[in-house]
Predict the structure.
Amino acid sequence: MVLEWATQEDKSKIQDVIQRTVPNEQKETYSLKEFGYFYNEKLQLRQIAKPEEKFFYISERHYDALGDAIVDYIQEQMQKYGLKKVPVNEAEENYIFVSDDFQEKERVIILCCGSGAVKAGQWARALCINDTLHTGSILDYLKQAREQDYGVIVLNPNQTHVRINGVPLEEKCDFMNPTRIPGPEKKDVRWIENSGSGGEHFIWAWDNFVGKSNKVKDVSLVAHSAGGYHTMDLLENRSSEVKDLVRGIGFTDAVHSVKQSDDFAREFLPRHAVNWITSKLPVNESIGRGGTRNSGCELRSAGTTSHEMTSSSCQKYLFEFLEEMINEAHQL
């Protein structure tokens, strides 16, 4: 149980936190308020009953359910930036977010998160919980994208399958259980149409929005961590369109690699992309193209040694680079 590791004198305090932050009712989804949390003016997660108190860990099941509530909160904020949720198939099993005025925009930015539990709107779930939404979410990117008149697409590449029978509610809501909910076996999942992989998801979004737009002239891509792999899928499968439309790619500690046989990426990336990676060097200082990375492009310091922090720490310089790439394309 969650209290087994606690000293006797702390148990009453822990029980008090549990009463404040563990919902009694079993439901499929919860709001932040039902967990007893809110985001303050600094976009820090705090307890409603004691606003000075930070997140308190109960169990992995509680953490995951709270994480889902945080995703809902972030996506509500995204809608305030003029983004709408668009399903990728008739069953609405996955989605992307797209600017309301996308079809009117000449410049577009596509944001792709990394792998794991993160969903559309997040760079790092742990930062959304333990730091701020400034570092853990894409909200600051949306603010700057709006200021620079971008149309926006936000991908959700990690939602690739659904459980055929779901998870029993009593198991999902057993928040005092210290174990994780077991993952499904292959026979118990069905792959999502148009989102069976992160790469397929990226290409579907490209084809249905960038590919169908009569206005788009300049596309910028931002990909964090494993989002680099999905970007490489796009380059491999839509190389002619990428060559014509993509001006710049900002990778943030992306973990992709470039194949020796991939002639297009080997020619395109050095001229159009930068990967801001973890480093003790000052932010934006060039690290060259060597080392253990095979990103196919220049490496620069993100100004942090935290993988999760790279997207937020290099944001200013990443947008400056994308702007330079757009301006350079129009000078040719």
